[in-house]
Structures are given as structure tokens and as C-alpha cells.
Design a protein that fits this description.
Number of helices: 7
Strand order of the largest sheet: 1-2-3-4-5
Oligomer: single chain
Length: 247
């Protein structure tokens, strides 16, 4: 049943509409019900806050951002500055008074295969705005060495950053790309460590760009769902996420 796919308090109808709009066929295909579904973790994790964005805990590494947010969405399109073609979808979008935070959530994907970057010539257009040189440099380096990252889907992050640069300008916010990753128990600790090292290397490469890059684990973020500033309902949601997804 559809209700079994969503945790208590998650507005199933709103989440289902968002997933259907994104066109990933997550629900109809049965992928959403998979025990390893990344989409299910993100939709449940962020979906609970769609109707209560003011309760969303701040992300580690972004404590300088004005909080709480004004809105929380799942599956938001970040349009490129042209018509037609495919445009990136972020798993979640958090909008504050000053920032647009696009969230790319990962679960098992980094550990399934070795990544090979592919970036079309369309991304060479001079349309991304000022202070995007670090992202352009990553774009070019990935073309020269498409397998430079084993776990991190660096090409996808570049595309998301380009989409965020345009979408943030449209809504008059400063853009942030947040990489939110799980470290599943059955994944070897060595692979998790290497994944984190790649994140650190990527972070250093794009530091100072207009689209800010930040990264944190689900475990680190969920730790903020408890404590003196968290409501009992938020803490209960964190526990429900851990029990269902073990992020």
C-alpha cells in the first residue's frame, strides 16, 4: 500500500505529486519500495518538513546561513538558461531568506560502480555567471580524466551546480549545493573513507565559487534532530528514519 512507503507525518499526497512531476517513475516502477532506495530516504527525510519548514534542523557546515528556512521541497528542477533538453532535478530544495540550497542525496549509489564522467558540449556555453571558474575547471578536468573519481559522481554535481547558478539568480538567492550522503552498514569502512576523501578533494577544488559546495552525512545531520533545540516530534522523525533506512 502507498501508506507503507511513507513514515508518519509525511504528507504522502504532496510527496507523490512531487515524485510524479519529476518524471523518474520511482513509484510506478517499484524502485521507491526497494530496501536500498535513495529516493525513499530523501522523500521521507525531507517530506516531513514540507508542511513545517521552520522545524528543519540546520545542516552541518552551513551554520552561517540564516535559519530557519521559509520552504522545503522535494524534487525541484533547476533549469538551465535555455529551452528544451533535460534539466537537473535536485532531491530537495531548501529556501531561506537569503539562500537556495539544492540537496543531492546519496545512499548506495557511490559504492555500486566506478564513476565515469560524461559532460556534453552544451555545458561549454558562457552562461553560468561570475565566479564560476572553479566549476568550469572541474568540468574541463573531468573531460581530461573521466575516471578521476571512483565514488563521487562529480559530473552530476557539476551539472547540478550549473542548474543552481541559474535557478538561484531567478529567485534572487545565493546558491548552495549540498551533498548529503549515507554510509550503509554493509559498505566496507575503507570504501566510506575513500568516498569522504574524494568529497574533501572535490570541495577544495570548487572552494570560492559562486555556487557554494557543502557536504555532510545523513548520520551527522540526524544527530541535530535531537537535543535541547529539537522538538519531540523532530526527534521521533529522526528515530523513524534510522529504523527504516539506517542512514
Amino acid at each position: 500500500m502507498m501508506s507503507e512507503l511513507f513514515l508518519p507525518g509525511v504528507p504522502a499526497d504532496l510527496v507523490r505529486l512531487s515524485l510524479d512531476r519529476a518524471g523518474g517513475n520511482e513509484l510506478a516502477s517499484g524502485k521507491f519500495a526497494s530496501p536500498e532506495s535513495s529516493a525513499a530516504l530523501a522523500a521521507n527525510g525531507f517530506g516531513w518538513f514540507i508542511e513545517r519548514p521552520n522545524l528543519l534542523p540546520a545542516f552541518p557546515g552551513l551554520d552561517d546561513i540564516e535559519w530557519p528556512p521559509a520552504s522545503v521541497e522535494i524534487e525541484r528542477k533547476m533549469r538551465f538558461p535555455w529551452q528544451g533538453g533535460r534539466h537537473p532535478w535536485l532531491d530537495a530544495a531548501v529556501v531561506t531568506e537569503t539562500h537556495l540550497i539544492g540537496v543531492e542525496s546519496k545512499r548506495y549509489e557511490p559504492f555500486r560502480d566506478r564513476k565515469q564522467a560524461v559532460l556534453a558540449q552544451a555545458y561549454d556555453r558562457d552562461v553560468w555567471g561570475e565566479a564560476m571558474e572553479p566549476w568550469l575547471a572541474i568540468r574541463d578536468s573531468l573531460r581530461g580524466n573521466p575516471r578521476s573519481y571512483r565514488y563521487l559522481d562529480a559530473a552530476q554535481l557539476v551539472k547540478h551546480a550549473f542548474g543552481l547558478s541559474t535557478e538561484a539568480k531567478r529567485v534572487s538567492r545565493s546558491p548552495i549545493l549540498l551533498y548529503l550522503y549515507a554510509e550503509p552498514e554493509r559498505v566496507p569502512a575503507s570504501a566510506c573513507s575513500e568516498h569522504r576523501a574524494e568529497i574533501d578533494r572535490f570541495s577544495a577544488a570548487v572552494r570560492g565559487a559562486r555556487v557554494r559546495f557543502a557536504a555532510t552525512s545523513w548520520a551527522e545531520w540526524l544527530a541535530r534532530f535531537v537535543g535541547p533545540e529539537a522538538t519531540p516530534a523532530v526527534s521521533a522523525h529522526a528515530q523513524a528514519l534510522r529504523l527504516k533506512f539506517q542512514p
